[in-house]
Design a protein that fits this description.
Elements lengths: L11 H10 L2 H15 L4 E11 L28 H13 L4 E6 L8 H14 L4 E5 L5 H10 L3 E3 L6 H7 L5 H13 L3 E3 L2 E3 L5 H12 L7 E6 L16 H14 L4 E4 L8 H9 L4 E3 L3 E2 L2 E2 L3 H10 L3 E2 L3
Parallel strand pairs: 1-2, 1-9, 1-12, 2-3, 3-4, 4-5, 6-7, 7-8, 8-9
Antiparallel strand pairs: 10-11
Helix pairs in contact: 1-8, 1-9, 2-9, 3-4, 5-7, 9-10
The chain binds S-adenosylmethionine and iron/sulfur cluster.
Iron/sulfur cluster binds next to loops.
Amino acid sequence: MTAATLTNLTTHLDRIRQVYSQPFPNLMFEAQSVHRLHHNPLEMQLATLGNIKTGACPEDCGYCAQSVHNQADLKPEPLMQIEPVLEEARAAKEAGATRFCMGAAWREVKDGSQFDRVLEMVTAVAALDMEVCCTLGMLKPHQAAQLKQAGLTAYNHNLDTSPAYYDKIISTRTYQDRLDTIAAVSAAGISVCCGGIVGMGETETDRLEFLEALLKLDPPPESIPINCLIPIAGTPLENALPVDPIELVRLIATTRILFPTSMVRLTAGRTLMSDELQTLCFLAGANSIFTGSVLLTAPNPSRDHDRELLAKLDIHPKTL
Ligand code: SAM
Ligand code: SF4
């Protein structure tokens, strides 16, 4: 089912559903074919995500350990100093990462000395010849321009789920707030990293409408993180049921077909996935992972485990 033959269908959503629900072997064949047209199937982008400011976030994201509205067992930490962040970035580069992402548990960026320190971090990480990404919450256009000036490669701001389901998960901001920040990031000439999270009780239609929302972004996201919920004690989603593994692979494959040139990042939840499931996701077109044993505040496979799995698959780290 090529994208071209889908145009005779009525809406984006019809087309997405047709791709997603075609027979699994056909979906995987198409995803692999699209993937090989645009990417080296033997390459995996390794990124590392460091938490530069932990916890005490005023937003109420139902999945998040860092929200003050949730009762997760997490010790808040203030914004880190520059040198320890650089040490993490150097260690990530040593271990083969080409992208270093800095996350801060903020609702939004506020002008002042803390943002100035983050700008210095961006410039210093870029000077390590690494791609540098930030995920700091909502941004204003002038702040996006400052991040671009500082040398930022990409900004992460996830839409996470469908517009219809969003307020079931988050009430302290709107979908439009997210879209406004993404627009500011694009306008500043920074590439957009925007993805989602499955396993929050959303329906299949929510998942497809999430992809539809991504399709409406212009330009499309340069990288698309697909997270599987890690149920965290003390959050409203602590008892959420795991995602069906085949549904996850279908989502990855559909994302690959809809966004042929984007980096599709298999992100949170990999410690809950078998090596076989991860391998299926790679064959479906996922060509980026976060390495390092902690993903913000959540567990992630060890670098050694990732190295061993990729070596078994004859997949090597992508270089810049
Ligand atoms: N504070 C920034 C924000 O919210 O945009 C960035 C923090 S972090 C990169 C945000 C993303 O991590 C969420 O959009 C979600 O996709 C993912 N995430 C957070 N908690 C998670 C969990 N418990 N399980 C899976 N993914 C999670
Ligand atoms: Fe705050 Fe981001 Fe966590 Fe939401 S996902 S509570 S905005 S740190």
